[in-house]
């Protein structure tokens, strides 16, 4: 009997062990052969920051001024002056400023805001002159008042029907105050309606340093910062209908009225004026675009002859800058300041290579010994003012197996004009190690399998 009992015990142990082995094999095989693999270890490669080699722009220490350089993405296809969405405001951080940075009186620069706000509500479809604008008795009374004050005014009479485009021509080329008021009231019903719309528009563009209390800028209460006005200049030139108008030396308006472009200034330097005005409170104010020659290859920007920035310039060796010079004391000073700025841009701006295709930023190594790198998918360069090195940050993806060329994250360069993100792709494949490795590495495979169960 004892031998029989011992036999039964031994048999039970064998059965139990066999059961565990059989169950283990039932799970072990699928877990190792079919389960997920451990992710590759990720190591970010220490790539030195890129030195820009550019110099800072020459801006006057007096007055209030700002300048920005068009990036290779400036000038999208959309605009407020066509049937497509308006361009986004360039980032405030992309503007270099000097002198007074607080809000200052804007003078006639205010009319550019009026034009942009009106076009945001009543865009002019390409190939058309926009909606008809009927001159009211109130509009005509304004004209008479401006004439009596010797303020800039282009004639019109009550009940005339002007095209929206001609209204803009009179306001932008001739700096006509009566057309500014009339266009604002037409677009928004009343002057108060316009001012409310302008406040909303400025807030939406992030231009918190600018306030308008009229449509003309004759009031010293219409104020703005040089940073905001530089961005407004760029927005205006990226609006095709405005860029087309400002490219004209003169225009013939309703009733054969002739108007000259009063914003024309230093065209021999590649400058296209947007607004050139003077009031006692604001001093001389100039908003402009300049296409300047630079060494080192092509960049983007508008055509110096006009026609807008909707299509980027492919001229080799040029860069486009936008700027605002406010509170200039006199014309000789304005000319000297703008000449110095254009000269510094031409001499100092150079295309800065952010990265070149194939530069490795991250390295992957699998548990089974394969290695691959995440490399820049393209070569990227930008025109920069900054003299400090261009830093970058790497955002790698988690990778287990992947084909060569797969996206594995990005490298981002936080430039003043906004971040530039370059995709990273895998330079070689990371493949499955096969059944032999899976079965012979239970710790790696089983732990990954268990982790995958949540």
Automatic annotation (TrEMBL):
MF terms (GO), sorted A to Z: serine-type D-Ala-D-Ala carboxypeptidase activity
Transmembrane segments: 12-31
Gene3D superfamilies on file: DD-peptidase/beta-lactamase superfamily
Region described as Disordered: 66-90
Peptidase S11 D-alanyl-D-alanine carboxypeptidase A N-terminal domain location: 109-291
Keywords: Membrane, Transmembrane, Transmembrane helix
Tree of life domain: Bacteria
Gene Ontology biological process: proteolysis
Protein name per the record: Peptidase S11 D-alanyl-D-alanine carboxypeptidase A N-terminal domain-containing protein
Organism in which the protein naturally occurs: Subtercola boreus
């Amino acid at each position: 009997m004892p031998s029989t009992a011992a036999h039964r015990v031994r048999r039970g142990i064998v059965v139990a062990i066999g059961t565990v082995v059989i169950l283990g094999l039932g799970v072990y095989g699928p877990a190792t052969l079919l389960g997920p693999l451990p992710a590759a270890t990720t190591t970010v490669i220490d790539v030195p920051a890129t030195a820009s080699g550019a110099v800072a722009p020459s801006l006057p220490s007096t007055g209030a001024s700002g300048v920005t350089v068009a990036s290779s993405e400036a000038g999208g296809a959309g605009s407020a002056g066509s049937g497509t969405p308006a361009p986004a405001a360039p980032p405030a951080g992309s503007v270099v400023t000097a002198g007074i940075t607080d809000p200052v009186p804007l003078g006639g620069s205010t009319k550019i805001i009026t034009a942009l706000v009106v076009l945001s509500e009543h865009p002019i479809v390409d190939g058309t002159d926009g909606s008809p604008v009927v001159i009211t008795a109130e509009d005509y009374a304004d004209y008479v008042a401006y004439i009596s004050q010797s303020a800039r005014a282009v004639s019109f009479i009550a009940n005339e029907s002007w095209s929206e485009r001609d209204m803009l021509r009179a306001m932008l080329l001739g700096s006509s105050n009566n057309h500014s008021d009339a266009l604002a009231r037409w677009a928004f019903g009343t002057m108060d309606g316009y001012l409310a719309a302008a406040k909303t528009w400025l807030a939406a563009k992030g231009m918190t340093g600018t306030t308008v209390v009229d449509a003309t800028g004759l009031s010293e209460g219409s104020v703005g910062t040089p940073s905001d006005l530089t961005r407004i200049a760029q927005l205006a030139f990226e609006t095709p209908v405005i860029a087309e108008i400002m490219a004209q030396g003169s225009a013939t308006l309703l009733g054969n009225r002739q108007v000259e472009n009063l914003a024309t200034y230093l065209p021999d330097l590649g400058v296209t004026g947007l607004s050139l005005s003077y009031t006692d409170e604001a001093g001389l104010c100039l908003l402009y675009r300049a296409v300047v020659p630079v060494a080192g290859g092509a960049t983007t920007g508008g055509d110096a002859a006009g026609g807008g920035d909707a299509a980027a310039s492919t001229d080799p060796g040029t860069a486009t800058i936008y700027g605002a010079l406010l509170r200039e004391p006199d014309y000789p000073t304005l000319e000297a300041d703008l000449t110095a700025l254009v000269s510094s841009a031409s001499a100092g701006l150079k295309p800065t290579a952010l990265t070149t295709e194939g530069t490795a930023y991250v390295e992957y190594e699998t548990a089974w010994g394969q290695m691959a790198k995440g490399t820049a998918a393209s070569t990227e360069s930008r025109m920069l003012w900054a003299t400090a090195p261009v830093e970058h940050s790497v955002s790698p993806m988690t990778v287990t197996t992947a084909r060569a060329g797969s996206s594995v994250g990005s490298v981002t360069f936080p430039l003043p004009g906004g971040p530039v993100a370059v995709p990273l792709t895998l330079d070689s494949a990371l493949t499955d190690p096969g059944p032999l490795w899976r079965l012979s590495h239970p710790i790696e495979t089983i732990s990954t399998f268990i982790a995958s169960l949540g």
